[in-house]
From TrEMBL:
Domain HNH nuclease: 91-144
UniProt xrefs under InterPro entries: HNH_5 (IPR029471), HNH_nuc (IPR003615), NA-targeting_endonuclease (IPR052892)
Source lineage: Bacteria, Pseudomonadati, Myxococcota, Polyangia, Polyangiales
Claim: Transferase is one of the keywords in the record: no
Gene Ontology MF terms: endonuclease activity
Key word Zinc present: no
Record's protein name: HNH endonuclease family protein
Keywords on record: Endonuclease, Hydrolase, Nuclease
C-alpha cells in the first residue's frame, strides 16, 4: 500500500497549468478536503464523492479500502491556487548532463553514463567556480587530457559555450519524475 500512496500525481493550478508533482497520499488529502478535483483521462472533473464511485480499471493504480478499492488519480485541479511557480533549475550532475545531452563537450562522443565526468572549463585550481557557465560534461579521456589547463591551453575546443538552462515547469516535472502518464500529456504539451 505504501508503494501506491507514493505514486506521482500531476497538480494543476486554477487555470490548468502544471504546478508540481505530488504523491497519491497528498492528492487524496486535497481531494477529500475539497481543495481540488480529480481529472479523468477525458478531462472530466470529479470531487471525492464522485471519484470514489468510479470503477478501478486494469490500467489504474488502486488503493485498497474496506470492501473495495479506490482509483488513484493521475491529475488534480486545484480550486484556488493561481500562481505559476518560477522555474529555477538546480545545478546538479544530472541536470548538467541533461543540458549537454549526455555528450562530451570536447570530442562529441556519447559514452555510457559511467564514463562521463563533469569538467571545470576554468579549472578550480585557478579559481573556476561551480556554475552553469563553467561546468561541462566530458568523457574521462578528454577530462584527463585537459587536466588543470584551460581548453585553449590544452588545444581543445568546446562544442558549445556552457549556459544556464531556462527549462519550463514541464521539463522540470519530467526530469524529477521517472514516470509520465498518458493523462498528463495534454497539460504538459500546453505549457
Amino acid at each position: 500500500m505504501t508503494e501506491v500512496l507514493s505514486k506521482p500525481v500531476l497538480v494543476l493550478n486554477r487555470v490548468f497549468q502544471p504546478v508540481q508533482l505530488t504523491t497519491a497520499k497528498r492528492a487524496f488529502v486535497l481531494l477529500y478536503g475539497g481543495s481540488a478535483n480529480a481529472l479523468d483521462e477525458d478531462g472530466e472533473e470529479y470531487d471525492f464523492a464522485l471519484w470514489r464511485t468510479l470503477p478501478v480499471r486494469r490500467s489504474d493504480d488502486a488503493l485498497p479500502i474496506i470492501g473495495s478499492a479506490l482509483r488513484v488519480p493521475r491529475v488534480l485541479h486545484l480550486h484556488r491556487y493561481d500562481r505559476t511557480p518560477k522555474v529555477s533549475v538546480r545545478l546538479t550532475r544530472r541536470n548538467l548532463m541533461f543540458r549537454d545531452q549526455h555528450q562530451c563537450q570536447y570530442c562529441g562522443k556519447q559514452p555510457p553514463l559511467r564514463e562521463l565526468n563533469i569538467d571545470h572549463v576554468l579549472p578550480r585550481s585557478r579559481g573556476g567556480p561551480d556554475s552553469w557557465e563553467n561546468l561541462v560534461t566530458a568523457c574521462r579521456i578528454c577530462n584527463l587530457r585537459k587536466g588543470w589547463k584551460t581548453p585553449e591551453e590544452a588545444n581543445m575546443r568546446l562544442a558549445r559555450r556552457p549556459f544556464r538552462p531556462k527549462w519550463t515547469m514541464t521539463a522540470q516535472l519530467l526530469l524529477g519524475s521517472g514516470t509520465k502518464y498518458r493523462e498528463w500529456e495534454p497539460f504538459l504539451k500546453a505549457s
